[in-house]
Structure formats: structure tokens, C-alpha cells
Write a structure and sequence with these properties.
By secondary structure, the chain is an alpha/beta fold. It folds into 3 domains: about 270 residues, Spore Coat Polysaccharide Biosynthesis Protein SpsA, Chain A (Alpha-Beta Complex), CATH 3.90.550.10; about 70 residues, no CATH class; about 100 residues, Sandwich (Jelly Rolls), CATH 2.60.120.10. About 20% of the residues lie in helices and about 35% in strands. The strands form 7 sheets. Strands 20-21-22-29-24-27 form a 6-stranded antiparallel β-sheet, with no helix packed on it. A 5-stranded mixed β-barrel has the order 6-9-7-8-12. A hairpin with a 2-residue loop joins strand 21 and strand 22.
């Protein structure tokens, strides 16, 4: 079996304000109407003969990931990390899982947040990589550089191994401009894509040789993992594993490392400038990515400017080489040349305790979404959408009361000892301290307005008593 392993973590801080901790880069829609995770999933299925993939992700992204993959005929398994520990621990645990599926399993490791536009060329590269991996080699995919890019790591290729593979001579960190130009001129350097192919037993053996403490600890973690349904929950012991990349832990130390160079329209979408490059340009190099139609943007006398807008009209006049990224609660304006520095904004927001570093105004939950419409001292107004057949937890709040007004659909409400059915234009009041639950037992979405009142309105003022999504503390 060639089993796809999709690594879906990382916050994508350089793509703020669209990518945030609660809704990170893999869930962004770039290069089409589908998220990067969905595009990666479909690409993995097609190249691996429709073998069900394993998605390695954070526990907090489990339900969001399931929603993204809900319409796929072939369902994945999910390995859920309690916290991110970089790629080496994730790949080690994925390899241990794969060995239980097939002792001869070969893994195709793909980050969930890359864009590939030439799928047939990618298929060809995967076939070549698998052929080398079957011999016991550890194979990485190199991207033939098209420019002296300073934002990528490079791989120096040595002697040819057959017609399409090369021995890896060394790994090089992100170079300066002059060094990158030299690499481009030499012709034997490729970008390190972060995609790999190897046998499960080969990567585990190499990890045992190169990082024995990590390999041993990973086996101990796997022995404690809990499986149920489509999910494998890793134990808290996973948090103690070294946070280290597979490059540092294995690839830069092991022997028999092979690079398969390719050119299949790859981009890691690492910054907004890369998003602009992946978007359709007008005659003046301007690009847009709107959530509705092109009439949301008006561009006059501007060049090489990228506009991303979600909910309102954005007009640009007389601009050159700018990024304008507009979301309901945050606006980013930056020079394209400074797109790598967006992460500094996130760092400042986080240091200042501003929630915009982690959450959007609309927040996804296992049961649906809520959107904060307005808030002020002592009150908060939300629009709540509960998916068909979904239910919130049985819960209680210490510091706030809630008023619920149904807009569309039918709500089944438990309010204290009362069971109430509410239809459109009906409401109920829930005092602080009352146990309550909201459920949608119909086949269509339930939309309602919630008005919260109280001295403290934080999301952590929730005491759960029952929850079908396993969120009880």
C-alpha cells in the first residue's frame, strides 16, 4: 500500500488575518473554491489508488477537518495531537500506525497547506519516488527553482541515481540573495518542499539510528494511543516529545537520502505574495480573491496589488505593489516586499492578549458556528447557526444570562427543568446558573440570535455536564 499521510497543523501566521489559530491555513480557499486541505486530500486519493489517507492534526481541528472532508466518498482516519510537536513526532507516530495497516506500507507524506497545479506531473513524480522508496531509500521531493528565492530551504543534489533521482549531498538553510542567485546558476540545487516518500519501516529504522531517544519515546506514546471510530487520540505523553522537524531529526543525518526533482506548479503559499502569485492577474498585474464576486473590488490606476475581501466593497486607487487583506474584524495593508513580516503583527497581538491573533468574528464549533455581531460593557450579541441534527452541550454559565430568539428553523431547548420547542420569531430567557441545552433535530439549519448579559462574557464561562463531542473536562 502507498498510504497518504497528510500533515495538517501550523497556524500560518504570515497569512493573518485570514489564517488564525482557530481557523488556520489548511482551511483557507486558495486557487479555487476548495480549501487547501480538501485539495490536498483529493490529490492524495488520486495518486495513491484511493487508499484512505491518515490526517495528522490537532485535536482542536478534528471536527473542522471532518466538515471539510464530509462530501468525500472515501473517508480518512485522523490522528489527533494534543499539541503541535513539529513533523518528526507526527511522522513517527504515523509510521507506527501504518505498520499496523500493512507491514510493507510505503508512506506519501504531504503537508495539507500546499498548492499544486499540475497534478499529472505530480503523479509522475510520486511514481518515481515510490519506486526508490521501495528499495529502502528515504525520498524527498525537490522543486526546481524558478527564481533566487530566499524564503525556502535548499537541497544540493549530488550524483544521479538512475534517470530521475539524485543523491542528496547536503541541506542548506534559507540563503541570502547572493547565495540564492548562485544556487540558481549552478543548477544542482532544488527547493526543499517538505514532501516525502518512504517505507514505514525504513523511516522508523532511520529515526532509531539518528534520533534514538525520539524513536523510543514515540513507540511508548503509540502504546498508549486510544483508537475509536475514525480517530486515534494520542496521549498527553505526546507533549513531552521533542519538537523537531523530520529534516533535523533524520534527513540531515541519515544515509541513502534521495531527491526527486520536479516542476508541478508547487507553492507552499507561505505568504500573501505567494497567494497573489497563485491568483489570476489582470493586465496590470493586479489580483483579487473575493468570497462573492469581482464587483466587491474596484481597482483604478494601480499595479501589482492584491486585494482579499470577504464581506464588503474595497476600492483601490493609485497603488503599486501593495497587499490589502480585509476581514470583518481586521484589515492588513502591507507592501508585497514585506509579506514575510506579517507574523510580527501576530506576535504583537498575542503579546497584548488581543483575541484577533487566534479567532475570527465567526467561530466554528462541532455543532455549527457563532458570529459576534456586537459587544460592549455587559452585553454581547451573537448569530448562532446549529447544523441539522446537531446539539450543543448541556451547560451552565456562572456570570451571564442569555436570551434566545429563533430566526429560522426549530429549536429544541432544555431550560432548567423545562423542555421547550421554539419556532421562528419565538424566544426564551435563560438565567445565570440554569442548566440548558440547544438542539436542532430537523434536517435544515437552525439560525438564532443570542443576547448575553452579565459582568463577564468570556467563552471560558461554560460548565459542561453532557457533551456528544467529548469536550467534558
Amino acid at each position: 500500500m502507498l498510504i497518504p499521510i497528510i500533515l495538517s497543523g501550523g497556524a500560518g501566521t504570515r497569512l493573518w488575518p485570514v489564517s488564525r489559530e482557530s481557523h488556520p491555513k489548511p482551511f483557507m480557499k486558495i486557487g479555487g473554491a476548495k480549501s487547501l486541505l480538501t485539495q490536498t486530500y483529493e490529490r492524495a486519493l488520486s495518486v495513491c489508488d484511493f487508499t484512505p489517507p491518515l490526517i495528522v492534526t490537532n485535536t482542536n481541528y478534528y471536527f473542522l477537518s471532518r466538515d471539510e472532508i464530509a462530501n468525500q466518498d472515501i473517508k480518512p482516519s485522523y490522528m489527533l495531537e494534543p499539541t503541535g510537536r513539529n513533523t518528526a513526532p507526527a511522522i513517527a507516530l504515523a509510521a507506527l500506525w501504518a505498520l499496523e495497516q500493512d507491514p510493507d506500507a510505503c508512506l506519501l507524506v504531504l503537508p495539507a497547506d500546499h498548492l499544486i497545479t499540475d497534478t499529472p506531473a505530480f503523479h509522475q513524480a510520486v511514481k518515481r519516488a515510490e519506486a526508490s522508496a521501495r528499495t529502502g531509500a528515504l525520498v524527498l521531493f525537490g522543486i526546481r527553482p524558478t527564481a533566487p528565492e530566499t524564503g525556502f530551504g535548499y537541497i544540493e543534489m549530488g550524483e544521479a541515481i538512475g534517470a530521475h533521482a539524485f543523491a542528496v549531498r547536503r541541506f542548506v538553510e534559507k540563503p541570502d540573495q547572493a547565495t540564492a542567485e548562485q544556487y540558481l546558476a549552478q543548477g544542482n540545487y532544488v527547493w526543499n518542499s517538505g514532501m516525502f516518500c518512504f517505507r514505514a519501516d525504513s523511516i522508523l529504522a532511520a529515526m532509531q539510528d539518528c534520533s534514538p531517544a525520539l524513536a523510543t519515546a514515540a513507540r511508548a506514546v503509540w502504546a498508549q494511543a486510544q483508537s475509536g471510530g475514525d480517530r486515534i487520540d494520542l496521549p498527553a505523553a505526546f507533549n513531552a516529545l521533542d519538537s523537531i522537524s523530520i529534516d533535523y531529526a533524520v534527513m540531515e543525518k541519515a544515509s541513502h537520502i534521495i531527491a526527486i526533482p520536479g516542476d508541478f506548479g508547487w507553492s507552499d503559499i507561505g505568504a500573501w505574495s505567494a497567494v497573489a502569485d497563485a491568483s489570476e492577474h489582470d493586465a496590470f498585474g493586479n489580483t483579487t480573491n473575493t468570497q462573492a464576486d469581482k464587483r466587491q473590488t474596484i481597482i483604478i490606476d494601480s499595479r501589482n496589488t492584491h486585494i482579499e475581501c470577504q464581506h464588503r466593497l474595497v476600492a483601490a486607487i493609485g497603488l503599486d505593489n501593495l497587499l490589502i487583506i480585509d476581514t470583518p474584524d481586521a484589515l492588513l495593508v502591507a507592501d508585497k516586499a514585506s509579506s514575510q513580516e506579517v507574523r510580527q503583527v501576530v506576535s504583537r497581538l498575542k503579546a497584548g492578549g488581543h483575541e484577533a491573533h487566534s479567532t475570527h468574528r465567526t467561530v466554528a464549533r462541532p455543532w455549527g458556528t457563532y458570529t459576534v455581531l456586537e459587544e460592549g460593557p455587559g452585553f454581547k450579541i451573537k448569530r448562532i447557526v446549529v447544523k441539522a441534527g446537531a446539539s450543543l452541550s448541556l451547560q451552565m454559565h456562572h456570570h451571564r444570562s442569555e436570551h434566545w430568539i429563533v430566526v429560522t428553523g426549530t429549536a429544541e431547548v432544555q431550560n432548567g427543568e423545562q423542555a421547550i420547542r421554539l419556532n421562528a420569531n419565538q424566544s426564551t430567557y435563560i438565567p445565570a446558573g440554569h442548566r440548558h441545552r440547544l438542539a436542532n433535530t430537523t434536517g435544515t439549519d437552525l439560525v438564532m440570535i443570542e443576547v448575553q448579559c452579565g459582568p463577564y462574557l468570556g467563552e471560558d464561562d461554560i460548565v459542561r455536564f453532557e457533551d456528544i463531542y467529548g469536550r467534558l473536562k
